[in-house]
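lol ok so funny story. i was supposed to be doing the assay writeup but got distracted and ended up predicting the structure for this chain instead. priorities right. anyway since i did it might as well share w the group, maybe its usefull for someone
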Amino acid sequence: MERANTGRRVLGALLTVAIGATIAGCSSTGGLRAEQRAKEARANGSAVDTPRWKIAMVTHAGAGDTFWDIVQKGAKQAAAKDNITFLYSNSDQGKDQAQLVQTAIDQHVDGLVVTLAKPEAMKDVVLKAEKAGIPVVTINSGSAESKEYGALAHIGQDETIAGQAVGDELTARGKKHVLCVLHEQGNVGHEQRCAGVKSTFKGTTENLYVNGTNMPDVQSALQAKLQSDPSVDAVVTLGAPFAATAAKAKEQAGSRAEVDTFDLNAQVAAALKAGTIGFAVDQQPYLQGYEAVDLLWLYRYNADVLGGGKPVLTGPQIVTKDDAAALEDYAKRGTR
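and the output, tada:
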């Protein structure tokens, strides 16, 4: 009887050891796999060990617009942190932009960041992406359409509010006749900016449409307008690269108009410091790119969303000569 009990105790001990070894082995394997994922993520410059998801950004950027370089810088830094493969493409033609989104869908990306400067051209393909199970975040333009099209969130500034802030600033500066320069016809965000300026500015507002893909033509059109109408005492451009061109047109025309602009880059920061530009409206493009990618990672990882159906605002911030010195270093490194 004692021998039987002894046998059972030995057998029980052996089973306990075997089960423990099996559990330890499974735990060790799982731990090693998790550790390996973390190691691979760190090797990629990532701060996380989530899968290597793929996110595409498709914008309406035109050639040479440095604003989008800043957006991309933010997106790429968020992608590096989040172990994301980041893909970027762009076209200032609505039909072509929609085709680029279709290409991203065909590549089975895990998330999409899009702009809706020409919302009607984008509607069907954005809805198609969501039907395919691809979460979408809109940035920069199209805040009014973002929720309607089923996007998780919109990140950017409200263009009407930004325009209103400019109108208020121009009124405070005592301006009487403002020229609002639109460099991309059909861009709803540009129309909203100039309409916002008009709604709060106490003087006269006039729109001037130019071909933003041809800077010499932009300068010629502005110069001709300023020469023919000396009552214009403020020129508002809708993108940082156009501010320097406006300043040249002003000089050539012998105009005394103040040049102000939407958006900020190193050249604008230097011009603010020098006093050749009155003020700029910063919508923090770096933040738009960074937060869009980071939000898609958060949604994939933890089903997080931002904004509660309302736009997540990154601007406007009125930047003047007093702010230029503090922002110049950031602008030079391409993050403001």
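The two ends are 85 Å apart (CA to CA). Confidence is low (pLDDT under 50) at residues 1-28.
back to the writeup now i swear
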